[in-house]
Amino acid sequence: MTSENPSHSSLDILLLAPHPFYQERGTPMAVDMLLGVLSRRGLRTALATFAEGEERAYPHVAIHRIADLPLVGRGIAPGLSLKKLVCDVFLFGKAFKIVRKTRPRLIHAVEESVFMALVFRTLFKIPYIYDMDSSMSLQIIQKKPLLKPLGPFFRWIEGLAIRRALMVIPVCNALADVARASGAARVRVLCDVSMLSASTSCTLPKETLGESPGEPSRAVPDLRCRYAITGTCFMYVGNLERYQGIDLLLESLAIALQTDPNLDMVIVGGRSQDIANYQERCRELGIAARVHFTGHLSVAMLHPLLQQADAVVSPRISGENTPMKIYSYLDSGRPILATDLLTHTQVLTPEVAELVHPDAPSMAAGMLRLSSDAEHRQRLARTAKELAACDYSPVAFERNLNAIYDDILGRLEESDPPSASPRHPLTKHTPTP
Could you please report the per-residue DSSP string of 370-408? Predict the structure, then answer.
């Protein structure tokens, strides 16, 4: 399945995206921003991705999808899974055909597709850059502890892919340290950014949610009206995978409610089965009346949703990469409550967030401090918004990505042998005055 072929037979960039595209979650949203920048540069780009996802169109970009696989189905979740690995096999076949036919100047490999790029570099001498969203060796061991004895092999193969890359582009400093320790030739950090600019035109009508959490809703809900929230409203936005720390969040709320019974937690996002599981956990903890699951809501609603909260939370308990939600949280004008793990502290400081140890009593204490101290909430929110405007805006993302591609494409131009046939020039980006 292909859409919009570039107007020339040769190709500048092959972008490998081993996930559903487009979807409103971290990596697909980052790929969407990346494609926008490459398109505006005029680079002829091919995207190879999964069958699942919303259609997108960009000038100078061709989108190639693998075939729909009935046995795999839809609903491919983030992280390692058998369904994802099956799709990866078909994605490799799709990418191989593109490489053999077009011989792209550069491969931009996201996540595990770096191993495909490593094969193409070996077979076709095509350089690649590694868009590093996580440490895959660590992610595999965390998700499948039985594979821990294979840890040295996973680290070796990941290190090989890192060392052979023309450049590694991690999403945070912790992953940059991993890349450097593995012997990366060049490392340039490219942080995610706030997504609130995509939702600022969305208003807050009186329509409420449907009766099926987990199913998309088209109207922005008035959460306080629907759930009769009169006290402090905490909000979590994101998927409900185990590493996100939702169990910790619920246990913390149960403790905090013993001191302040006028707290509510709104959880935005998650699949239906995950929501059902956590609703059962809420009943076990005796907090079902105080925890409200909205299901998936569009990113276009993010700004008006966050405005209804008194504080936003990220209880993540593992991982190195900073959650994409953190950048929108910073920009929201609402104070942040987060665990004091590296996944957060490489961006957040005590000046912009209430940072707590990743245990239920500590997080409960953080909730109570935010609920009882309005001046503290306002101070954190104000400082956080200033940080977001300076370092984590879409303008900053495009500026930083253009600088990275200026460097990469300049190196490619210099490496072309004098005898090579003329090719489409990879000119540097010229900022708009």
Answer: HHH-HHHHHHHHHHHHHHHHHHSSHHHHHHHHHHHHHHH
Q: Tens digit of pLDDT for each residue in 302-359? A: 999 999 999 999 999 988 889 999 999 999 999 999 999 999 999 999 999 999 999 9
Q: Which CATH code fits 196-391?
A: 3.40.50.2000
Lowest average pLDDT, out of 90-99, 211-220, 274-283, goes to 211-220
Kindly report, residue by residue over 66-107, the tens digit of the pLDDT: 999 888 778 887 777 888 999 999 999 999 999 999 999 999
Beta bridge partners of 13: 45, 106
Query: Measured between alpha carbons, how far is 223 from 386 in angstroms, rounded to an integer?
Result: 27
- 2-193+393-415 against 196-391: fold identical: yes
* Nearest CA-CA partner of 242 in 231, 250, 233, 230: 250
- Cα distance between residue 131 and residue 59, in whole Å: 22
State how far the Cα of 371 lies from the Cα of 251, in Å rounded to an integer. 17
Most distant CA pair in the chain, distance: 76
**Looking at the predicted structure, is the pLDDT value of residue 52 above 60?**
yes
pTM: 0.81
Angle at 265 between CA 262 and CA 286, to 5 degrees: 70
| pLDDT computed for residue 417 by the predictor | 60
* Closest residue by Cα to residue 102 from 179, 32, 163, 44: 44
The domain segmentation of the chain, as residue ranges, is 2-193+393-415, 196-391
Report the top-level CATH class of 2-193+393-415.
alpha beta
Residue type, 103: R
Residue 308 carries which DSSP code? T
Integer distance in angstroms from the first to the last C-alpha of the chain? 39
Paired residues of 267 in beta bridges: 236, 293
